[in-house]
Write a structure and sequence with these properties.
This protein has 288 residues and is an alpha/beta fold. It has eleven helices and 13 strands. The longest helix is centred in the middle third of the chain and has 12 residues.
């Protein structure tokens, strides 16, 4: 299965990060100094994706504007000899073939994916959630694509979560069939702890086949009264095998306040220009 396209879902209201997301879309909130949406786009490109569809809601044009050229800013930086900053800014200009789809009403994750149907067409594609940011030895999406190509089947990213965290996620019933690879038998969206089939949660990276659109189009509201992507995956699993891949690396939840802070620390400690000062500060407050 060759995957050329990725759908990035940026239509959410961002309520978990209010009040910062009241005016600024949560996808523009930074990981250090890089907007989350750019981090995800760069992961897609590094994974070999050629075309990207970004699904937004009305009023979130800023998410797309970030990838447009800002001639005034570039001229300002060039005139002042700030060539390093100029290069950083230009790196975000049209980094890939990006198109836009709009979700008019917040009817759920599955409904958001459905809005990309015309742009994706009849070919397999990846789905990426910008709330989930990964620090991996190989891009998380690339790990999934390798598994999808090997099995010629859909693959979702899996992470073992603490029992107390289970009701926050889509949880899978799965059997291990290879190193880090599991065959999925069922998926449940945000189950009570006592009814969860496992402690493996689906993270925000998916590789799916285009027939998922048919299932989304006839899908009925599920958990939270929304059209759930997990429900469509469950229906898809009745047509074809679906696998889960326990990705290698670290995942940060930027929609969670502690996750957001953790991402700044985790990525900051990997930056040569920041690591020493950040580490010294962390040591100073730990010893207080």
């Amino acid at each position: 299965m060759k995957v050329r396209k990725a759908v990035i879902l940026a239509a959410g209201m961002g309520t978990r990060m209010l009040p910062s997301s009241k005016v600024i879309p949560k996808e523009i909130l930074p990981v250090i100094d890089t907007p989350a949406i750019q981090v995800v786009v760069e992961e897609a490109i590094a994974s070999g994706i050629e075309e990207i569809v970004i699904v937004i809601s009305p009023g979130k044009a800023t998410v797309i504007d970030h990838f447009n050229c800002n001639l005034e800013l570039e001229r300002h930086l060039e005139e002042r000899g700030k060539h390093e900053l100029l290069e950083i800014v230009r790196r975000s200009n049209n980094p890939a073939k990006i198109s836009v789809a709009e979700q008019q009403s917040p009817l759920g994750l599955g409904h958001a994916v459905l809005q990309a149907r015309a742009a994706v067409g009849d070919e397999p594609f990846a789905v990426m959630l910008p709330d989930d940011i990964f620090d991996c030895p190989r891009p998380c999406l690339r790990q999934l694509l390798d598994a999808a190509e090997a099995k010629d089947a859909p693959v979702v990213a899996l992470l073992k979560v603490a029992r107390s965290e289970i009701p926050k996620y889509g949880i899978v019933d799965a059997t291990r069939v290879g190193e880090r690879l599991y065959e999925l038998h069922g998926l449940v969206e945000k189950p009570p702890i006592e009814k969860a089939p496992s402690d493996f949660a689906i993270m925000g990276r998916y590789v799916v086949t285009p027939d998922v659109f048919e299932l989304l189009a006839v899908g009925k509201p599920g958990a939270g009264g929304e059209i759930q992507f997990t429900d469509a995956l469950m229906a898809l699993s009745k047509r074809r095998k679906i696998y889960g891949y326990e990705f290698e690396g670290i995942r940060y939840d930027l929609g969670d306040r502690v996750g957001f802070i953790s991402a700044q620390i985790g990525f900051g400690l990997k930056r040569p220009d920041l690591a020493d000062r950040l580490r010294a500060y962390l040591q100073s407050i730990i010893t207080q």
